[in-house]
Specification:
Elements lengths: L7 E6 L5 H12 L4 E5 H8 L10 H14 L3 E6 L3 H14 L3 E7 L2 H9 L7 H7 L11 E5 L4 H11 L5
Parallel strand pairs: 1-3, 1-4, 2-3, 4-5
Helix pairs in contact: 1-7, 3-4
Length: 168
């Protein structure tokens, strides 16, 4: 099995929990030149144009993309909903191959998800958000930390930078 020396930082949580915003800020704040940002939604929705259902190809593409970057010495920030019953096997494989792994779960209530979505330029249908919402999707990996709802984006960034030792 291929093992990687780079760091794997995984940001998971429901839609509107702040993952994408924080992922970009972590990358920028780290000051490190070799950090790849792998966005689940971009690969799934734009590259493959897939819906979030069982048996889709985006899981393999995410895994291959992350491994591609890790194999070339990049630290990787993987962000997305990454619903654990569907993406868990892939996340386990990546964690096994990359011992320096750091998982963060953005624990945001449905009410806060709906409030945050209402502030976005491209809002989602409320019923759709309610259907997508999956509470308490922890991995229970040893490296997992919870980012609570009350954290600002800046507090989340500082927590991730500190735990993953990402300062350049």
């Amino acid at each position: 099995m291929q093992m990687y020396d780079s760091k794997l930082i995984v940001l998971r949580g429901n839609s509107g929990s702040g993952k994408s915003t924080v992922a970009k800020k972590v990358r920028e704040a780290s000051g490190k030149p070799n950090i790849a940002l792998v966005e689940q939604d971009y690969l799934r929705r734009f590259i493959l144009k897939e819906k979030e259902t069982e048996g889709t190809h985006n899981i393999d593409l995410i895994e291959q993309t992350v491994e591609f970057a890790l194999a070339r010495g990049y630290d990787v920030i993987l962000e997305g909903g990454l619903y654990f019953p569907r993406y868990g096997a892939m996340l386990r494989r990546l964690a096994e191959k990359c011992p320096a792994n750091y998982f963060f779960y953005f624990d945001v209530s449905l009410e806060e998800t709906l409030r945050r979505d209402a502030t976005r330029p491209n809002t989602h249908d409320e019923q759709q958000l309610r259907e997508w919402y999956k509470p308490n999707q922890l991995t229970h990996f040893a490296s997992e930390r919870v980012i609570p709802e009350g954290y600002s984006a800046e507090a989340a960034v500082q927590t991730i930078l500190a735990h993953a030792s990402l300062m350049g």
